Amino acid sequence: VEPAGGAAERRIRVGIGDDAAAWQPSRSHLSVITTDALVDGVHFLSEKVEASAVGHRAMASNLSDIASMGARPVLATVALGLPASIGEDWVLDCYRGMQGLAARHATRIVGGDIVRAPAITLSLTVVGEVSASRLKRREGGKAGDVLAVTGPLGASRAGLELLRRAAGFSSQIDDGDRETAAQAYAVPEPRVAEGRWLAASRNVHAMMDCSDGLSIDVDRLARASGCGATLRQVPIAASAAAVAVAAGDDPMRYALEGGEDFELIVAVAPRAFAHLARRFERRFMRPLPALGSLDEETGLRIQEGGALRELTPRGWDHLA
Amino acid sequence: VEPAGGAAERRIRVGIGDDAAAWQPSRSHLSVITTDALVDGVHFLSEKVEASAVGHRAMASNLSDIASMGARPVLATVALGLPASIGEDWVLDCYRGMQGLAARHATRIVGGDIVRAPAITLSLTVVGEVSASRLKRREGGKAGDVLAVTGPLGASRAGLELLRRAAGFSSQIDDGDRETAAQAYAVPEPRVAEGRWLAASRNVHAMMDCSDGLSIDVDRLARASGCGATLRQVPIAASAAAVAVAAGDDPMRYALEGGEDFELIVAVAPRAFAHLARRFERRFMRPLPALGSLDEETGLRIQEGGALRELTPRGWDHLA
């Protein structure tokens, strides 16, 4: 992570206050752009989540999309829809949440629009840069590639469960697990440094972020690469397991279908994987667990005991 | 206007379907970005305006911001919030409206997000490019500069009045004026070619689009340039005058406060203005009327008869 005020800052020529912002793209790089909208009651619950966390999550989701291309985020614009009932304090706190995370990733908020709307609506756009040779896409995976993920899954879904249930429920869960799950939902960390590091390897053939649910996202990566996929060992976050057990849910479903973990999924050349995973662990002090492989056979499968069964891709459906 | 599929198209490397879109900025250019949100019931009336016009207007508003920097639009992203009551036909028509206008300005829609929302919400972001020496801002105007505008004003406000009033009202108005006003509101034309042409002149010191109302926008340009401004001859669209008279309104208010005309306001070196205006008229088959000047004295004034009076900047207030 670069400090704010570094090279990215200097390239920005016009910020907030003119009709548009302007920046100087560096010469050897591609620019990338992503946009995401979050609506109160659909993507977040303003009554249960602090304004700063709403802003943080919106920014995290977009930074994660930039990270999944292997790019470095540079700038962001924000369109904010607000009901008349929302006061200035909420807006400032929300902005602080966006701004805090953006600054840690050397990303400058250069402009936006505030409009009246019936529900709080945040539309963020983030622009990043990546050298053309390092750009990673969903396509590019090959049959036989190892599928791996930058961290264990399901904690965000567990955090949402804590919000949904009464206070008595969460008292059954270990303090550390409860706090970890709550943080994973409220203030998720986009894997920006990890994405740029992984993108530097030619042995990483495809990359995407796990924002809608592991099963649906692995299926998308496999399809884009013209392959199928088999999941063999899905890493479940300890906090997800603790909350799921207390809730009487299957922890595996939190990991497979929960979404919003914002870990990166990569397809890696099989001969290079062990070495890459060791280097990743030395660099980030965390493992890069393998969870399965891309296959020539289309479709999505999961190994349970010794047997394979077909797995239906499920996750966050944006229009559900 | 360049054909779609030209140079801008070739620079786009990744479009819809991946986590983010990617493009190759040209080497000697700045990139510019703008974002705008439109909400049903606030910025448009989906019951009274066709879906294609809603899409067109949202795109026009963003292209106009790019034009006002002197830039060429390159690509757009769209975040669309939809209530459950809105069907696929509406979405497709809206997209056609955006896409049709974007294509005429060689701008490609590269991605977006569709989410559930309590009211139709369109958040567009457009990225453009401009050579660093041609970038025009609101600041840069000098006391004594001629203020001019790329077309007469008030027609969009007149079109809105036609929508608001009963059918009997519009029957009092000449067919041509009625149609012109309705079109100015429903499918406004951003001045993209005009903006690029004006930006090529060093004698154009400052430029912005007239989207919130002439009085408020001239005041903004003047303040950004450290000046005041005097309006002497405001060009009122014939259709605006016809509708205002039928409505018992003051036509000048439509022009000064109406907004959404999307004409460009420029501050031009006084010695160069007559020549620039003649060249503009030859190039675009339309005059570039002078409407006043930037002054050393701060504040906004308007000449009425032989006298000057203070003018309160009024226009579209985004949170009114």
Provide a short characterization of the protein structure.
Chain A is α+β, with helices and mostly antiparallel strands and 320 residues long. Helices cover 36% and strands 26% of the residues of chain A.
Low-confidence stretches of chain A: 1-5
Taking the sheet with the most strands of chain A, its summary is: 7 strands, mixed
Strand content of chain A: 25-35%
- The N- to C-terminal Cα distance of chain A equals 36 Å
- Considering residues with a beta carbon less than 8 A from a beta carbon on another chain, report the largest interface and each chain's count: A-B, 66 and 66 residues
Overall pLDDT score of chain A: 90
- Helices and strands of chain A: which structural class? alpha+beta
Which range best describes the helical content of chain A: under 10%, 10-25%, 25-40%, 40-55%, 55-70% or over 70%?
A: 25-40%
Strand order of the largest sheet of chain A: 8-10-7-11-9-12-13
Q: Based on the structure, what is the oligomeric state of the protein chains?
A: homodimer
Number of helices of chain A: 11
